[in-house]
Amino acid sequence: MKQKGFFENLFPQKELDKTYSTKIKTPIYEPKGIKPRISELLDSRKTRELIQEIEKSNVTEKEKTFLIEAAKRHNVFNYSNIAEYYCHATKEMQELMEKSALVIIDFEKAIEYGYVRLAEDIAENYLNEYGDDTGKE
Q1: Could you tell me the pTM of the whole model?
Q2: Do 71 and 95 have their domain in common?
Q3: Is 27 part of any domain?
Q4: Which of 97, 102, 114, 129 is the most exposed place for a label (fewest CB within 10 A)?
Q5: Domain limits for position 45
Q6: Do the beta carbons of residue 132 and residue 13 sit within 8 Å?
Q7: Gap between the Cα atoms of 89 and 95, Å rounded
Q8: Torsion 17-116-67-39 (CA) sign
Q9: Per the domain annotation, does 125 fall within a domain?
Q10: Are residues 63 and 100 in the same domain?
């Protein structure tokens, strides 16, 4: 018996358009150059500026702690450099980068780590909102 793919499991009652494949092709990344410096993987200028402003503020310590955590969402990752760094990294560093979803190398691991859960939640919400619109009983 053929094992169903990810999207067939999400939408079992829908017949998928066979024009497109649901097969996931993992790209093979070939290193393009030298290993980037850690400082080239992340732009945290805005985060640092916000944190400085928060630390100088008169809000409570609890508010500062919250705002500092919120400021971290302004970090900007350079995924091209991250991919290049990953290629040159130790096995341990690669595993930690995968767990942090900086790179997704193994789709099954991505599911295991919970990064695919969002797609499942969206599919479930869609079906709850709109139901099965295939017209099949």
Answers
A1: 0.58
A2: no
A3: no
A4: 129
A5: 41-77
A6: yes
A7: 10
A8: negative
A9: yes
A10: no
Give the model's confidence band at 78: pLDDT under 50 very low, under 70 low, under 90 confident, else very high: very high
Map residue 43 onto helix, strand or coil: strand
80, 102 Cβ separation under 8 angstroms: no
The answer to the question of residue 4 being in a domain is no
For residue range 57-74, list pLDDT tens digits in order: 999 999 999 999 999 999
Q: What is the pLDDT of residue 75?
A: 96
In sign, the C-alpha dihedral spanning 104, 68, 78, 97 is negative
E strands, the chain, in order: 42-43, 76-77
Nearest Cα to Cα of residue 97 among 89, 108, 31: 89
What value does the CA radius of gyration of the chain take, rounded to a whole number of Å?
21
Closest by CA position to 69, among listed 59, 57, 54: 54
Is residue 14 assigned to a domain? no
Q: Residue 1's pLDDT is what?
A: 47
How many structural domains is the chain composed of? 2
Q: Beta 42-43 vs 76-77: how paired, if at all?
A: antiparallel
What is the rounded CA–CA span in Å between residue 113 and residue 68?
Answer: 26
